[in-house]
Each structure stands twice: as C-alpha cells, then as structure tokens.
Amino acid sequence: MKRFQFLSFGSGTGERFIGEGCAISLTLPVISSRFFLDDFVFSTIISLGFSMMKKVLWLDLETTGIDPDRHGIIQFAALVEINGELVDALEIKMQPHKGALVSEDALIVNRVSKEEIQGFMPHEEAYRKIDSFLAQYVSRFDRKDKFYPAGYNVQFDLDFLNKMFRRYDQYGIGAFVNWKRIDLLPLLYYMDYLDKIELENYKLQTVCAHFGVELNSAHDAMSDVKATREVMRCIEVYM
Question: Parallel, antiparallel, or unpaired for β 34-38 and 55-63?
Fold first, then answer.
C-alpha cells in the first residue's frame, strides 16, 4: 500500500508529493507536523474537497446612518464568488424603509440628497430583488449551503441587511449566509500586531493606497466591495 507524506506549515495546509516536481495542495486539519495517508483515505479527501463549493458573498452597503434600528439602506452592492471565481454581481440604489431616519452627515458622506433618494428603487422591491439574486446560488432551506459573508467591517453590513430581511422573512439574512465572516479589517489589525504593516489609519482608502489597489469612488458600495476583495487577494500572501 502506498503512503503519501504531508508536511504541515502551521495553517492546516499540506502537499501530496508524487515524484519530482509534482504536488497537489489542499487544506486539511493538521494534527501533527508530519503525517501519512494511504491511497484510499487520500483519494476520499481529494474527492470530497473537489465536490465542496466554497461560496462567498462580498457585500457593502451605504446607509442613512450607523444604527440599524433607526437608519436604513440606500445602496446595496454584492459580488458572488464560487470556488475563487467571480460569477455574478448586483448593485441597487434603494429607498430606505418607511420611518427610517436620515442623517445629514450620511447624506454628505454619500454625496446624495433626500430628493435623489426618493427616486431610488422602492424598499420592498429592492428586498425582493436581493432575495431572488441570493436564492440563485444558495438554498434558503439547506443549512450547509450558505455564503461566507465577506467585506470590510462586514458585521455592520450584516446587521443592516438582517434588519431589512426580517421585515419580510422571519429567518433574516441567515437564510443565505453562515455567519462565518471573512472580514478584512480584523485581519489588517492582526497584521499590524505582527508588525507586517503599519498604517496611519485603517480606513479603506488608506488601505487601498498602501496595497496599490484602485478605489474609484470611496463610499460607493460597488467600488468599495470590489476594492475590498482586491485588497484581500493582496494580503493572502501573508497567510
């Protein structure tokens, strides 16, 4: 029986070496720095790994304030990534829900007026469109088939999105995401702690400038989410 050697690098990554210069990388739960697998176990792991689709929902919102209980969403932007490839995108400029407060500071940041917001897509129509978009890629009824939510301080966006979904669906945004957040901001803070980077601040604009990532229009949801994903690709070399 053949046995395949795996060498761990401290993060659950191993390599299967098949002769000279041929290797297949995969992620495994490492229980020691060196271990061996027989043919059957290895082939089983490979088949499982290739059948599991990693689905990521990169998202960003623009809102009328910072409190999801009092303020509302005025722009939604999302990128759907499956197994590392972008497969779809959606951007909606929408009216906040009825009764939402609108902060003057938020209008200034988003460079929009109350009059312009009134011309955006009605709130419930926007919700229906977002719901249908997400349902194309994951099953709301299958607990194992969910997006990893990803973004920049993405909990902020999830809180607002969950409030919107719960107005129409008792399960909220949890019908589509697994709550295992892929958040760029705490990763950057940890890199700072490790002395890998040191920036004046960790605003998205500053981070993009540091990594040479183009940010076409700060505080535009689609520009922000595209830039966030690109910065994540830059820092993956540190992982």
Answer: unpaired
